[in-house]
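Researcher: Let's do a round of design. I'm pasting the structure tokens now; please hold your answer until I've finished.
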């Protein structure tokens, strides 16, 4: 049987891990933003596009999961009692949020595919392409002019 000290230690570690998980995601987001900003070759842009496409697929899986939960909450509301409306609202909000994120990632992937093709075919420089993407409001790059 675990004593109180072991329980406290275990709970502390679990709390630490749960706090680090979003931080790891934030670092990954910063890495992809840096990769997108520093992409200079066709293969760089294709790699960034592949990342955004994979991210969109993962987010779409979350959308489907939330839609299934929403359907469950609506069809079996008697199981959830007073929490039914809250659960439905939360699931619906997550569906909207995830759909918006997936759409943004798909647009970003398409933009990088376009940048990769344009850079090779038309001889555009990367700064010209980045100005184009910033003007369209899709690229998370910042202008330092």
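Researcher: That's everything. Go ahead.
Model: Designed sequence:
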């Amino acid at each position: 049987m675990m004593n109180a000290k072991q329980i406290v230690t275990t709970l502390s570690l679990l709390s630490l891990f749960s706090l680090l998980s979003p931080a790891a995601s934030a670092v990954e987001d910063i890495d992809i933003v840096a990769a997108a900003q520093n992409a200079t070759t066709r293969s760089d842009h294709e790699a960034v596009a592949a990342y955004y496409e994979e991210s969109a697929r993962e987010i779409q899986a979350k959308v489907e999961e939330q839609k299934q939960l929403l359907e469950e909450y609506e069809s079996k509301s008697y199981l959830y009692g007073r929490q039914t409306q809250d659960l439905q609202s939360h699931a619906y909000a997550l569906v909207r949020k995830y759909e918006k994120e997936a759409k943004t990632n798909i647009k970003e992937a398409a933009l990088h595919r376009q940048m990769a093709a344009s850079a090779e075919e038309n001889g555009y420089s990367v700064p010209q392409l980045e100005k184009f993407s910033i003007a369209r409001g899709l690229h998370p790059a910042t202008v330092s002019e």
